Automatic annotation (TrEMBL):
PANTHER family cross-referenced by the UniProt entry: 4-AMINO-4-DEOXY-L-ARABINOSE-PHOSPHOUNDECAPRENOL FLIPPASE SUBUNIT ARNF-RELATED, SMR FAMILY PROTON-DEPENDENT DRUG EFFLUX TRANSPORTER SUGE
Organism, as annotated: Paraburkholderia saeva
Membrane topology, record value: Multi-pass membrane protein
Protein known as: 4-amino-4-deoxy-L-arabinose-phosphoundecaprenol flippase subunit ArnE
Ranges for domain EamA: 39-114
Intracellular or extracellular location(s): Cell membrane
Gene: arnE
Length: 122
């Protein structure tokens, strides 16, 4: 259950980032001094904001079940890798070889940091 909470937290965080990016792209509008109510119809912004809140609650729930030195690196690395992949798939942003290498190095680094602790927590 604790790993499912962590995975859902990563998914919520990454999805929120994608939605906020969508909210800032035309034709959607964000509030300005001339149109302060423009954001009310910007559903990706509000859904992204709710998902950030959900991600925070899931992260807190994961911290209740896992050590900080396991949960935080996994959430951070998972969110960064997920956002990089989704930005390439959804927004057609460049996905260079060094992005793949960086994700692989992050996964290796998090594995090295958490593997012993995670195995004793099970």
């Amino acid at each position: 259950m604790k790993w499912l909470i962590l995975i859902l937290g990563v998914a919520s965080n990454a999805s929120a980032s994608v939605l906020v990016k969508m909210a800032m792209m035309p034709p959607r509008r964000f509030p300005s001094l001339s149109e302060p109510l423009a954001a009310l119809g910007n559903w990706p912004f509000w859904l992204g904001l709710c998902l950030y809140g959900t991600a925070f609650l899931l992260y807190a729930a994961a911290l209740a079940r896992l050590p900080l030195n396991v949960a935080h690196p996994l959430v951070t690395c998972g969110a960064v890798a997920s956002v990089a992949l989704m930005s390439a798939l959804i927004f057609r942003e460049p996905f260079y070889w060094n992005t793949i290498a960086g994700i692989a190095l992050m996964i290796a680094g998090v594995a090295l940091v958490t593997i012993r602790v995670a195995s004793t927590v099970s």
